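Hi,

I'm pasting everything inline rather than attaching a file, because the server keeps stripping attachments. The sequence lines come first, and each chain or strand is labelled.
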Amino acid sequence: MNTFFEDFATFAPALVGGLRISLLLTGASLLFGLPIGLIFAFGVTAKNKILRFVSVFFVEVGRGAPALVLLQLMYYGLPNANITLSSLASACLALTWTTAAYSGELIRGGLQAVPEGEIEGSEALGMSRADTMRFVIIPQGMRIALPSLMGFAVLLFQTTSLAYSVAVPELMSQAYSTGSSTFKYLTVFIAAGLLYAAISIPATWLSVWLEKSMSKHL
Amino acid sequence: MDMLLAILIGLPMTILVTVLALLIGSVLALPLVAGLRSHNRFVWLLCRGLVDLLRGIPPVVWLFILYYGISVGVIRLTSLQAGVLGLGLVAAAYLAEIYRGALTAVHAGQWEASSALGLDRATIWARIIAPQAWRAAIPAYTTFAIGLLKDSSIASTIGVAEIVFMSNHYARQSGGSITVYFVAAAVYIVLSVPLGMLSRKIDIRMRKTVTR
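And the predicted assembly:
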């Protein structure tokens, strides 16, 4: 047991450095993915055929294909279309796609859960459609969608562990290279697992708490 | 066409990994959900901790722990064994939560009525509660199963020759092209669409026979 902690201490700097890249990748994917998801939320039911087709395509492929396939598509596939991105950029692009697809559906669910009366009320007050969306529907819909978006963010953080397969130097790939140089695979992967758990378990608790406290205000 | 065939060689493995992991998960989730409903604080804490840990650590880490981690000892798992076991353990934790939610969806009156009729506990569980809870669990269960189908691709990282592994293999052999990955994505989508439709159909039929 003692050697486990000693090894843990030796591996810690590399692993924590990897964890920072995992978190960076999660943050960047959410930063780009969520606004696109909001557009998709409207796009999949839009009257404009092109917008609807594009939205449905990206949402269905983003949710239907495994994240691993999207990562490899961006990293190994794109260079054949004469677009070569760094490993971090291609992983970010792939996970942004995943984020936009899933959050698009979650946001759409949230917007649809806003009571019809809110729209009728806004119409009665003479608000324009854009204003109704901007000030009435979107704020309430986002509040309804927030707990499930939090839940998705935790899953996304876990999914970044797959980015090791496209050579992003995140937590999993740091663990793998440490393991292959010291042969202490068991220790280093348990250490990496605990680091992932240390972020995702409290984050899950937070999303459960958020859901409970939000439901009071709806 | 060549490409599609090369990818589809991995299809049986994808289905095998998914089905076996789902089986292991469905069975192991039962003791877990019993523990989550236990009044014994120690048992509850143990199961709660286990479920949180299994869900809090990414599946790929579990696969690596099982495949590379315990290969040093006496037991050495093959990549298929490690993949199925790892995904099965993670599935058990998620399914335990799904079962737990489904059990709370069964109306308390069902318990009261069964006791009032003088049924013993085993009969109440087997004949009254479990069939209704199962119906309530179906939508979440099938959503999870579709997710697991996609997660089975993670087993390619430890060398299980399923769809993603085969597409990579083909991409490397043929000098690579972006189409391979789109075809692989399409295979997963084609697999999951009918599953989703089936689940909605069963759910609508089952819903009629659940009390609220």
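The interface with chain B takes residues 60-61, 64-70, 72-73, 76-81, 158-159, 161-162, 164-165, 172, 175-176, 179, 183, 185-186, 189-190, 192-194, 196-197, 200-201, 204 of chain A (CB under 8 Å).

If the labels don't parse on your end, tell me and I'll reformat.
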